[in-house]
């Protein structure tokens, strides 16, 4: 199922705790909320699929890719 953006009202202290948790886990705030909801709902934790990172010689990703927008990288990977 695709990701859906939503807006929630949340206690400020809880939000700050979630932000610290995300930073400590090198994760996103969305990831922290999704993991907490999965635990609460008794659903299994999602393990991200391994993504093979394409390389082009010794230069890494193509120079026209920037990381200003996650959708740009996602679109590129979908095309591979």
Written account of the structure:
The chain is an all-alpha fold and 80 residues long. The protein is 45% helix and 0% strand. The longest helix is centred in the first third of the chain and has 13 residues, at 12-24.
Highlighted features:
single chain; 80 residues; mainly alpha; 45% helix; elongated
Helix-strand blueprint:
Blueprint: H1 12-24, H2 29-41, H3 70-79
Helix pairs in contact: 1-2
The rounded Rg comes to 16 Å
Oligomerization state = single chain
Overall strand count: 0
Mean pLDDT: 82
Helix content: 40-55%
- Low-confidence segments, given as residue ranges, are none
Query: Helical stretch count?
Result: 3
Order of helices and strands: HHH
Structural class: mainly alpha
Describe, in short, the structure shown.
The chain has helices at residues 12-24, 29-41, 70-79.
